[in-house]
Design goal:
The chain has 168 residues and is an alpha+beta fold. Helices cover 36% and strands 33% of the residues. The protein has a single domain, classed as Nuclear Transport Factor 2, Chain: A (Roll), CATH 3.10.450. It is built from four helices and five strands. The N and C termini lie far apart (104 Å). About 3% of the residues have low confidence.
């Protein structure tokens, strides 16, 4: 009888452990967020198209359209002058360029690379800026630039940093 009672007790303990393990332990799903969808190719294509429109606007002396490509808090870093970190400062800088006799600007994008995160990208390229010198003769400056783009709440892209300088 004692043997039977020990077997029943052992069986009861094993059954209880099985019930407890089945009910009490569940593997939790991973708490790590899934990586964002890889939109780099589409982002880079969108920025290239936008950069082309920006270059066309600047070449056509369309001040308002040129300025529309900047985020409200964007900063321009032109050579030999202070940073243009406000809308008004950017407006003054572009107005001065566009009002200069002989103004002609050609911009060519070389590279666009978007971050895997989908919220930032950069563009590099070259430019050719022609302005009349003090004698009224066209003087062309060739240079390079970097633009940092940031995705906006509406999923569009705006420039947040624009730096350029001459090759000479």
């Amino acid at each position: 009888m004692r043997r039977k009672s020990a077997s029943i007790q052992t069986l009861a303990v094993v059954a209880l452990l099985m019930v407890c393990s089945a009910c009490g332990y569940q593997q939790k799903p991973s708490s790590a967020p899934a990586p964002p969808e890889d939109t780099r190719a589409a982002d880079e294509s969108a920025i290239r198209a936008q950069a082309l429109e920006w270059a066309k606007a600047a070449a056509a002396r369309d001040l308002e359209k040129t300025l529309s490509f900047y985020a409200d808090d964007a900063a321009m870093f032109p050579p030999n002058v202070p940073i243009a970190a406000t809308k008004e400062a950017r407006r003054q800088l572009w107005s001065a360029f566009m009002a200069t006799p002989g103004y002609a600007l050609e911009i060519k994008t070389s590279k666009v690379e978007a971050a895997r995160s989908g919220d930032l990208a950069y563009e590099t390229g070259v430019y050719s800026l022609t302005l009349n010198d003090k004698k009224g003769k066209p003087a062309t400056t060739n240079g390079k630039y970097v633009v940092v783009w940031k995705k906006q709440a509406d999923s569009g892209w705006k420039a947040v940093a624009d730096i350029f300088n001459a090759d000479q």
